[in-house]
Write a structure and sequence with these properties.
The longest helix is centred in the middle third of the chain and has 14 residues, at about 310-325. Helix 3 (about 70-80) packs across helix 4 (about 100-110), helix 11 (about 310-325) packs parallel to helix 12 (about 340-350) and helix 16 packs parallel to helix 17 (about 465-470). It is built from 18 helices and 20 strands. The chain has four domains: about 5-120, Tetrapyrrole methylase, N-terminal domain (Cobalt-precorrin-4 Transmethylase, domain 1, 3-Layer(aba) Sandwich), CATH 3.40.1010.10; about 125-240, 2-Layer Sandwich (Methyltransferase, Cobalt-precorrin-4 Transmethylase, Domain 2); about 255-285 and about 415-495, Rossmann fold, CATH 3.40.50.10090; about 290-415, Rossmann fold, CATH 3.40.50. It is elongated, with a radius of gyration of 27 Å. The protein is α/β, with parallel strands linked by helices.
C-alpha cells in the first residue's frame, strides 16, 4: 500500500535566503516535488535534493501561465499520489498568497497538509529599508493590504476606511501598477497629502531600492525612479525614518544581475561571494556530475609514484571510492600533484600534503614544470572526469612518464536547463553570465543556440573556459587572472565599479 502523501504549504520568505525558516529547510531537504512561485530565490530551491522534481507555477502581472484552479488541482494530484510535496510560496503562504485556497483544496480532498509560515515580504522589506512599521508615538498598528483591487472600481478594499485610520501604517502589496489610483483614493478620502511614504523594490535582496516622498508625490517619484514589481508601498509617519535608520547598504555590485551556471551543488560558494558584494544572483545549472564505478589498484604505492588531480571534483569522487574500503595510510610513498588552488585546498582539507602545484593553473603548465625525473619505473595515475583532455597523458608520456587515466566521474547536461533558459535570460535579462568550466560553457551554447540577450556580458574563470566560450562565437568580457572564485569576483567588482565624480 502506498504511503499517504503530504503537502507542505511553505513560506519561502521575502527573497533573502538567510530569512528562510528552519522548518522550511527541513521539509525542502526531504521533498520529492517542489512546486514554486515566480519570486522564489534560487538559493532556497538549492535546499531540495537533486532528485526532487521542480515544477514552476509562477505568475506575473498580466502573465498567468498557471490558473489558481490548475495549481490547486496539481497539488491535490501530487499529494494524492503519495508524494512529499513542498508548495513553496514567496513570503508567508497565508498573507496575500492564496495559500488558504490551496489548503482548502487539499482539505476538501481529504489529504494531509502542513502550513509553514514565512517572513512576509511587506514587513521584511520595511525592516531592510529602515522603517519600523510600528513605533511608539507614531504607529500602534499596521495594516497589510493588497494593491490588486482598483480603487476606481468596486473592490474588496475599503480605501476610504483605511484613509481614516490614525497612527496606523499601511503596507500595500502588489500596488505599483495601480499606485496613482490608490493614492488618489486615499487623498480623496481625506488622507493628509504630506503623509510620509516609501516604495521598496526587491526588498531584502542585494538589488533592493528604496524611494521616499510625501504621499501626493509618491506616484511620480516611483515612476521617475523606474521602480516596478516586486515592490511594497509603505504609507505612514514611520516612513520618514527610512533615511535615518537605513542600515542595509548596497554593495559594489548592487544593481548587477549575475547568472551562474555551475552545478547545483557548486553554485553556493560563488553565489555567496557575489551576494556579499551586492549582486542579484540567478542560478541556471548547466551540468551535473555523477560518480562512475571504478576499480582502484590493489597496491597504489607499488604501481604509482604520482597521483595527479586536475580539479576539485576529481578529488571528491576519487576519495569517495577510496574511503569506501581503503585506508588512507596506503597512500604512503605516493606523491600528489594538484592543478589549481581549489584542488589543492580540497586535498589539504582531507589532511593530505600536496607535493607539486604548477605556477599557472593549466595542464600544460603542470607538464612543463613537472619536478620529477622518471627513476623507479612507477607510473602516474591521472584522476579526472569523462570530459578531461588527454594533454596530461600525452605530454607526460613525452618526457618519459607513463600515465594511466582514471575516470571517476562524468559530466552530463543538467535536466530542466533548456526549459528555464528563456524564463531567466529574457524575462529579466542578467548583466553577466559566469562560466566556471568549459563544459558549462559548451552546454550553455547547446541550450542557447547562439541566442543571447543584447548587452549580456560573459565572465570566465580561466583560459580553457574562455576558449570554450569563444568557440561558441561569443566575446569573453572578463577572464579571471587566476582560476579562483575570489579573484573572479573581485575583478568583476573592479570592472563594474563606477568611479565617483
Amino acid at each position: 500500500m502506498n504511503q499517504p502523501g503530504i503537502c507542505y504549504l511553505t513560506g519561502g520568505g521575502p527573497g533573502h535566503p538567510g530569512l528562510l525558516t528552519v522548518r522550511a529547510v527541513e521539509v525542502l531537504r526531504r521533498a520529492e516535488v517542489v512546486v514554486y512561485d515566480n519570486l522564489i530565490n534560487e538559493a532556497v530551491l538549492s535546499y531540495a535534493p537533486p532528485s526532487a522534481e521542480r515544477v514552476y507555477v509562477g505568475k506575473r502581472a498580466g502573465r498567468h501561465e498557471w490558473r489558481q484552479a490548475d495549481i490547486n488541482r496539481l497539488l491535490v494530484d501530487l499529494t494524492g499520489s503519495g508524494k512529499a510535496v513542498v508548495r513553496l510560496k514567496g513570503g508567508d503562504p497565508f498573507v496575500l498568497g492564496r495559500g488558504g485556497e490551496e489548503a482548502g483544496a487539499l482539505a476538501a480532498a481529504g489529504l494531509r497538509f502542513e502550513v509553514i509560515p514565512g517572513v512576509t515580504s511587506g514587513l521584511a522589506a520595511a525592516a531592510f529599508a529602515g522603517i519600523p512599521v510600528t513605533l511608539r508615538g507614531h504607529a500602534g498598528a499596521v495594516v497589510l493590504v493588497t494593491g490588486h483591487d482598483c480603487p476606481m472600481e468596486s473592490g474588496r478594499v475599503d480605501w476610504a476606511a483605511l484613509a481614516a485610520l490614525r497612527e496606523t501604517t499601511l503596507v500595500i502589496y502588489m500596488g505599483v501598477r495601480k499606485l496613482p489610483a490608490i493614492v488618489s483614493a486615499l487623498l480623496a478620502a481625506g488622507k493628509d497629502p504630506a503623509t510620509p511614504s516609501a516604495a521598496v523594490q526587491w526588498g531584502t535582496r542585494p538589488a533592493q531600492r528604496v524611494v521616499t516622498a510625501a504621499l501626493r508625490d509618491l506616484p511620480p517619484t516611483v515612476s521617475a525612479a523606474k521602480l516596478s514589481s516586486p515592490a511594497v508601498i509603505i504609507i505612514g509617519d514611520v516612513a520618514a525614518l527610512a533615511g535615518r535608520l537605513d542600515w542595509f547598504k548596497p554593495g559594489p555590485l548592487s544593481g548587477r544581475r549575475c547568472l551562474i551556471t555551475r552545478t547545483r551543488e557548486q553554485n553556493g560558494a560563488l553565489r555567496r561571494l557575489l551576494e556579499a558584494r551586492g549582486a542579484d544572483v540567478v542560478e541556471l545549472p548547466m551540468i551535473e556530475l555523477k560518480p562512475l564505478p571504478v576499480t582502484l589498484p590493489v597496491s597504489l604505492s607499488a604501481a604509482y609514484r604520482w597521483l595527479v588531480f586536475t580539479s576539485p571534483n576529481g578529488v571528491e569522487y576519487f576519495f569517495r571510492h577510496w574511503h569506501a574500503d581503503r585506508d588512507i595510510r596506503e597512500l604512503g610513498g605516493v606523491k600528489i600533484a594538484a592543478v589549481g588552488a581549489a584542488t589543492r585546498a580540497r586535498l589539504r582539507a582531507l589532511g593530505l600534503r600536496v607535493d607539486f602545484t604548477p605556477t599557472v593553473y593549466t595542464a600544460e603548465a603542470l607538464c612543463a614544470e613537472w619536478p620529477d625525473a622518471a627513476a623507479d619505473g612507477r607510473r602516474v595515475l591521472h584522476v579526472r572526469g569523462n570530459l578531461a583532455r588527454d594533454s596530461v597523458v600525452a605530454r607526460l608520456a613525452r618526457i618519459g612518464w607513463p600515465v594511466d587515466p582514471l575516470t571517476v566521474y562524468e559530466t552530463t547536461a543538467a535536466p530542466g536547463a533548456a526549459g528555464r533558459y528563456h524564463e531567466l535570460l529574457f524575462a529579466a535579462p542578467p548583466d553577466w553570465v559566469i562560466f566556471c568550466s568549459a563544459s558549462s560553457a559548451r552546454q550553455f551554447r547547446a541550450v542557447a543556440g547562439g541566442e543571447l540577450p543584447a548587452g549580456l556580458k560573459i565572465a570566465s574563470l580561466g583560459r580553457v573556459t574562455s576558449a570554450a566560450a569563444r568557440a561558441a562565437g561569443w566575446t569573453v568580457d572578463l577572464e579571471a587572472s587566476k582560476s579562483r572564485l575570489e579573484v573572479l569576483v573581485e575583478e568583476l567588482v573592479q570592472r563594474e565599479q563606477i568611479p565617483l565624480p
